[in-house]
UniProtKB/TrEMBL annotation:
Family the entry assigns: Belongs to the UxaA family.
Gene3D superfamilies the UniProt entry points to: 2.30.130.110
Protein name: SAF domain-containing protein
Single GO MF descriptor: lyase activity
PANTHER family reported for this sequence: ALTRONATE DEHYDRATASE, ALTRONATE/GALACTARATE DEHYDRATASE
CDD domains according to UniProt: SAF_AH_GD
Length: 288
């Protein structure tokens, strides 16, 4: 079989579900391949002039960097990207369920009004240099099995990364980084959060101590101020043990689904994402 996936009459490329050899007649099309077409790749359905848009699933995915003839393989060697006007329409929601309907989930209402779906303790590093300490704290808690005595605590989670050190403190990158750390430290799924820095990095702990705080269950420490790795690990372990009873003191109760925030993450697109995962996630989001 060598048929193509073509979803719209405007498409000038089709996606193959199989490896198609050169000089192969495409089923249902007056097209003979001029190149070998790899699995999941695109075949030109009609001549595309240089500069014309390449359309797949009725979407512009790029522009021809040279003339592309019918039956040719369409890929990075003859496709380029550039800006173009995008016409879109925001659809109005027609079916909005109010809180009187049976649209609830068993969530945890935090003391600041946020609603959680989980009840974790978070250990967040502000710099790559504190990542090892962050992981050590988490591993010591996990292997101690102390959380077995606190059934309402879902676990302890390390948040580490590879940046935060030699950064321009005025840059857009630092702003994005700070918003990301702020998002973790304020996340409702964390009952308590420990934000740990080294002490000499550009992303100083004070950036996060002085920025947006949505609750008072956040603790800030630096390795250098505490006297090194062993001392900060021991201190944080002691603090965690002292707050376990408080973290465990939560109850799940019906919470409106409008408190949920749905996050979608690309796991690595392929030639079929546009007709499989993407619309499936869209439908799931609409249902929610």
């Amino acid at each position: 079989m060598n048929n193509l996936i073509v979803l719209n009459k405007n498409d000038n490329v089709g996606v193959t579900q199989f490896i198609i050899p050169e000089k192969t007649k495409i089923e249902g099309k007056d097209i003979v391949t001029k190149d070998p077409i790899p699995f999941g790749h695109k075949v030109c359905l009609k001549n595309i002039n240089k500069g014309d848009p390449v359309i797949k699933y009725d979407q512009i995915i790029g522009f021809a960097s040279k003339n592309i003839n019918t039956g040719e393989h369409v890929h990075s060697h003859n496709l380029e990207f550039k800006e173009f006007d995008r016409n879109y329409k925001v659809s109005e929601k027609k079916l909005i369920l109010d809180e009187k309907n049976d649209t609830f989930f068993n969530g945890i209402l935090r003391d600041n009004g946020q609603v959680a779906t989980r009840n974790y303790i978070g250990i967040v590093s502000t710099v790559n240099c504190s990542a090892t300490v962050t992981k050590m704290i988490v591993e010591k808690i996990k292997y101690s099995n102390i959380l077995n005595d606190y059934p309402n605590i879902d676990g302890i989670v390390p948040i580490t990364h590879s940046t935060g050190c030699g950064m321009n403190t005025e840059s857009e990158g630092m702003q994005i980084f700070q918003r990301t750390i702020d998002g973790f430290k304020n996340h409702p799924n964390f009952s308590h959060v420990f934000v740990i820095g080294l002490g000499c990095e550009c992303a100083q702990i004070s950036l996060f101590d002085e920025s947006l705080k949505k609750h008072n269950r956040i603790h800030f420490l630096t390795i250098q101020d505490e006297g090194g790795t062993k001392k900060i690990v021991d201190k944080v372990l002691s603090q965690i043990k002292n707050l376990l009873s408080e973290a465990n003191n939560v109850e799940r109760a019906p919470q409106s689904v409008n408190n949920l925030i749905l996050a979608l993450q690309c796991g690595g697109s392929d030639g079929y994402s546009g007709i499989s995962a993407n619309p499936a996630l869209g439908v799931a989001a609409d249902m929610l």
